[in-house]
Amino acid sequence: MVTIFKRGNKLYLQYTVNGKRRQKSTGLDDTPANRKLLKKEVIPALEAKIITGELDKPRAKKFEYYGDIWLKSKESLKSYMEWHNIYLHQLLPFFGHKKIDEIKRGDVKEFVHKRLDKVSPKRVRTLVNCIKAIFDIAIDYEHIATNPAQAIKLPKHKPIEMMPFSKEEVETLLNNADGWFRNYLAVAFYTGARHGEIIALQWSDIDFKELTISITKRIKKGQIDTPKTQSSIRKVPIFKPLVPYLEEQFRLCQEAKTLSVFFNPHTGMAFLDTKKLTQFWKPLLQKCGFEYRRFYNTRHTFVTQMIRAGVPILDISQMVGHKSIDETMRTYAKYLPQEHLKITRNLDPFACNLADSGFGDTKLSQ
């Protein structure tokens, strides 16, 4: 039962929900007209909400409340700082001040359109997945019924095209690079290692006797951790053309008295992020007269050249730390469209032993 009482000159309502007494100001002055309005319209509506249980529903909180819960669930992940930065710098400024039940599908779409002006659809898809996960937490708390970020349509992602360097282009880059950066490029081109793995190398990882490099860690955004995947923890061979570059770099490090294989010549300290390398990469491309290509193409160059050299795919996959040969082939086969035409013409597909046709000796014509 809802009753009216007066406090000062204002009218209040008193009612009970689940055995708990509540009082609520109407904001109305105590006049006959206002009492009549309460009895005729306000009190019946309030009693209906009490009967249906609407007043007993959990009260929705701001987006930030559920976002903090989501972010806390990421604390044990190596990628925590990436999620933290996404939440702090992109999601909170747009949604943080709003109550979760006030955010509509149109708000999410507005966010998407604004981000698409600055980043790729793939990146925006990652952001939307974060938003969906935060709304799902609010659904679990029964503070909202539906997820407004569900099934948001995005343009198809167009991945940045790989542009591996040719043998001649690699020679040009190495001939025009100086000092440590020339040595760095040689390691990148002759191992296919990721740049975060290369800047994390210590001289204890280099075995000149066995001619191997142990890749057990990486540096990303100032953080040292294990490589991208479990299969990325590996040993890679040091091919003989790479040895002189490593020996020269070793002498430079002895002079600088550092255990890191590569260090920033401007600071004398180890690199804390691969982005710092672009200040050396871009001028080199310009010096060589090359159009800009992503630094990551050093890795693509290694893989494509190894495939062309006839190195077994399994060996290549293990050297670059792929999960499987399927990943290697799926990623790189399209960049070798004419390789099948180099198969020896001595092959007889119907021979009992393909080796008799010369196919067992080499897949590619010499």
Describe the protein.
This protein is mostly helical. It has three domains: 3-56, no CATH class; 63-140, Orthogonal Bundle (DNA polymerase, domain 1), CATH 1.10.150; 167-320, hpI Integrase, Chain A. 43% of the residues lie in helices and 11% in strands. It has 13 helices and eight strands. The chain has helices at residues 32-52, 63-72, 80-95, 105-116, 121-140, 167-176, 179-191, 195-198, 243-256, 278-288, 297-308, 313-320, 325-332, and strands spanning 3-7, 10-17, 20-29, 206-207, 212-215, 218-220, 223-225, 234-237. The strands form three sheets. A three-stranded antiparallel beta sheet has the order 1-2-3, covered by helices on one side. Strands 4-5-8 form a three-stranded antiparallel beta sheet. It has a two-stranded antiparallel ribbon with strand order 6-7. A hairpin with a 2-residue loop joins strand 6 and strand 7 (223-225). Helix 7 packs across helix 11. The radius of gyration is 32 Å and the shape is elongated. Residues 357-366 have low confidence and may be disordered.
